Amino acid sequence: MIRIEHLNKRYPAAAESALAGVSLHVPRSCLFGLLGPNGAGKTTLMSILTGTLSADSGSVTIGGQSLAESPEAVRAMLGYAPQELAFYPGLTVGENLELFACLTPRASERTLQRAQEVADLKPHLGRQAEALSGGLKRRLNFAIALLGEPQLLCLDEATAGVDPQSRNFLIEAVRTLAQDGVTVLYSTHYMEEIERLCERAAILDHGHIVADGTLDALCIDGERLEAAFLRLTETRLRDPA
Amino acid sequence: MQRPIRAFVALCGKELRLLSRDRHGLLVLFAVPTLFILIMSLSLRDAFRAGAEFSIAVTVIDEDGGALSRDFVEALLQQQGFRPIETPADAEVVIRVAPGFSELLATRHELADSFRGGAVEPAMLLLEFQPSVLPQLRAAAALAVRQCLLSVQSDYLMAEVMGYGDDEMQTMRYLNDPRNLPVTESYRSAGGRAAVTPTSVQQNVPAWLIFAMFFAVIPLASAFVVERQQGSLLRLRVLGVPSTLLLASKVLPYYVVNLLQMIVMIAVGVWLVPALGGDRFTVGQSAFGLWLIGTATSLAAIGLALLVAVRVRTTLQATIAGGAISLILAALGGVMVPKLVMPTAMQQLTAVSPMAWSLEGFWDIVLRQGGWQDALPEAASLAGFGLICLVLAAWLLHRNSINTTTTT
What CA–CA distance (Å, rounded) separates B240 from A148? Predict the structure, then answer.
């Protein structure tokens, strides 16, 4: 579903490349984990995949369509829930969903209803988004990404700051979507979520893919994913310079 | 409906919904300028009136007590503008008639040659003003006292020295009264129509309306910062909403708000200010001209607001930068201090402020009674300024949307 070849990106005035020759293949209908310490380049990669940032070189193909040549076609396949709660707090849940449905390619009344069901938002449509609990806000953020019935769903820290019940709900919802054939690129710092959800994962560090494969292949001698992650990315702190 | 139009309508609706729920924003856009119009129109009412229409609290102390001093005091207190009060401490001006006033006035014509030769004439009247009295009011009151003194002196000379009878006295009084001189005054108008007399309300309604339109920079820029910080803007970019559509979806709702501001502020000037004792606002002859200059002002204000919005990073910056820019443009543009009381150099400096262009355009319509053609140069300047700001904002937004994601 996603094929990334030799992707490079360096920000102006940055000492290091944010992405240095990244190549990655994510099969169709796969739940794929994207891991990395702060500053590793995860958001840069997500931004390039979602078309909000241009790469310096390399290529990205999504669903057989080149991102550079057919951005509109790629956009129509894509759903994205950013790390930020990307909706309007001053609007109600229903108003937010209707607004983004108007802006989302391929969204319709049917997909709007479906997104409400998947995120269990129907009882909360009249509530102001600002007043929602952390879990409900994450569910709204997630539901907006589903409005175009995407073939590829990019989730960035989809469960950050939510209670265990909401996290469990979101993980199960993502699993259901994957079972329905949606490819999911799941970026998080919670290793147990990757262990619970994903078949494959890649670890990004200093702009390089340091590991890529099934979870069994990443973990040596039955070690936990967190131990494998620290082994591959080292334990020193990643404070920004 | 086609997708871009549907998206535009949805984004405009979102903007209006958010604005209608933003109580502080509405307060800034409507209540604050209304209050400014009321306060400034009522408090500056007398400052815009001609000198003859002054009003000042006066205590007259007659230390002479002679016939001529009594005539003078009586004539003075009959003058319009002098409000006699008993306690000198509360008076804005205390007028002391010095001992010897009547004697000096009766013999002054005999001593005129020696005064012309350099002899010092003793002061007969002492005018003691409170420091809080405005210079214009002081000048008007002093002029009225001098005119009254001349009148009493003239009457004495005609009756006692020249021996005029009643008819001749009446004739000379008529001829000596400055109000009867064959001079007329009027304000220049744009066309053949008579211009409206400038009043505090004619100055303040357009001035604070313009200020209110430009003050939209604060809610607009703040909302834009929140959109960016919350990630909504990022989501719109992912969905392929072009920068131009995004900006256009802000221009239309705020244009509607600006038109509403115009209607409300004009209504305040026409009905509320007179109800509270001020002058009535006169809207002029050209509704289209008002709409034209209002629309051009709105375009300039929204363009500037969007330019600020794409540059600032926090709501605090939006509030400080937006507020400071509006206040500086207002101070320079003759909104806070009327241009007509500024010195010439400062009046020339107003030309740098779009608020001054707008004020001139409004005055073309509401003061000079001109048509829309008279406001066209100012409207064109404002529209040009607004378009340049919009193009810059679109370019900056587009540039910022490329290669500025922080790496995580």
Answer: 13
Order across the sheet with B125-129: list the strands.
B82-84, B56-62, B93-97, B125-129
Distance CA A150, CA A180 (A): 11
pLDDT digits (tens, 9 = 90+) for A202-225: 999 888 898 888 888 888 877 888
User: Nearest 5 degrees, angle CA A3-CA A142-CA A96?
Assistant: 125
pLDDT by residue (tens digit) across B168-193? 888 988 888 888 888 887 777 666 66
CA atoms B4, B10, B16, B21: torsion sign: negative
pTM > 0.80: no
Model ipTM value: 0.88
Asked if B17 contacts A90 with a C-beta cutoff of 8 angstroms, the reply is yes
Burial letters B337-370, b for 16+ CB under 10 A, else e: ebbeeeeeeeeeebeebbbbbbbbbbbbbbbbbb
State how far the Cα of A202 lies from the Cα of A24, in Å rounded to an integer.
8
DSSP annotation string for B38-57: HHHHHHTTGGGS-GGG--EE
CB-nearest partner of B14 from A38, A44, A99: A99
CB-CB under 8 Å, B238 with A44: no
Q: CB distance from B5 to chain A under 8 Å? A: no
Q: Measuring CA to CA, which residue among A89, A177, A98 is closest to residue A136? A: A89
Question: CA-based angle B350:B316:B391, to the nearest 5?
Answer: 55
Return the residue in A42, A50, A84 with the most chain B beta carbons within 10 A, the one to mutate for interface testing. A84
* Closest by Cα among B258, B240, B301, B194 to B7: B240
User: B54 vs B46, which has greater pLDDT?
Assistant: B54
Contacts of A14 in chain B (CB under 8 A): 407
- Closest approach of chain A CAs to the CA of B93, in angstroms? 58
Q: Is A151 exposed, middle or buried (0-12, 13-18, 19+ CB in 10 A)?
A: middle
- For chain A, the distance separating the N- and C-terminal CA atoms, rounded to the nearest angstrom, is 36
Rounded Cα gap, residues B317 and B334, in angstroms? 26
Any idea what DSSP says for residue B119? P
